[in-house]
Amino acid sequence: MYDMSNEMEIVDKIVYMIVSGKYIAHDKLPSENTIADQFKVPRITARKAYERLEELGYIYKKQGKGSYVKDRSKQIELVLSGDVSFSQKMIEKGYDFHSETIFCREIKYNKRIYDYLETDEGDRIFKVGRLRYIDQQPIALHISYVAKSVFTDIDTVGMDITSMFKYYNSKGYTEFCSKPSILSISFPRESQRKLLNCTYLIPLLVLESGCTDKETGTVLEYIKILYRSDCFSYVIP
């Protein structure tokens, strides 16, 4: 029977050496044979440990050359505030950024979302999903829930929206403030792994928040954002 504890011991040791600075970005790691000898385990155990480290985003492989430490210092610094759009934040930082709207559909009644949007059961709520890319790689999934009573054309124009803030601007809402946010961690489901091109070992930071119009107090959206945790460092103002 395969003993996963040996595999995890190797993973823990190498992660510690990377985090502590013994290995730095682009350092070549010991071969699988060397690791197997060092930990007195079969080579398959060393190979699986390296596979886990790659899935976790700590290392990368060069065909025929071995395994190397991944440069994690290139993570995107993200300020978790709702008064400036994500698109604007990324563009201002100079990233090769683009957004793709992947769905706009009506949801069934959900008391929590309806209450958050301060609307009643007779209203229609649509969710608009946008996939965010940096350097052609998906890094975040933004899902905005909006009420048709506030945005009467959301069902017809939703698939054309790439920036919710620009859409709000076009409706006369120009100054925003964010509602209290909830942060949590989850592991991606299969559909989320496909969208974000990540493995099940990459946790997602889940941010739930909302946006209101400063002038009128109108709740514009309830938002749920799934960030790939290996792509960002986070600043909470």
UniProtKB/TrEMBL annotation:
One of its GO terms (molecular function) is DNA-binding transcription factor activity. Gene3D superfamilies: Chorismate lyase-like, Winged helix-like DNA-binding domain superfamily/Winged helix DNA-binding domain. The keyword Transcription applies. Coiled coil: none annotated. InterPro entries: Bact_HTH_transcr_reg (IPR050679), Chorismate_lyase_/UTRA_dom_sf (IPR028978), Tscrpt_reg_HTH_GntR (IPR000524), UTRA (IPR011663), WH-like_DNA-bd_sf (IPR036388), WH_DNA-bd_sf (IPR036390). Keywords: DNA-binding, Transcription, Transcription regulation. Residues 4-72 form the HTH gntR-type domain. SUPFAM superfamilies: Chorismate lyase-like, Winged helix' DNA-binding domain. PANTHER family: MANNOSYL-D-GLYCERATE TRANSPORT/METABOLISM SYSTEM REPRESSOR MNGR-RELATED, MANNOSYL-D-GLYCERATE TRANSPORT_METABOLISM SYSTEM REPRESSOR MNGR-RELATED. GO terms for biological process: negative regulation of DNA-templated transcription. Pfam families: GntR, UTRA. This is GntR family transcriptional regulator.
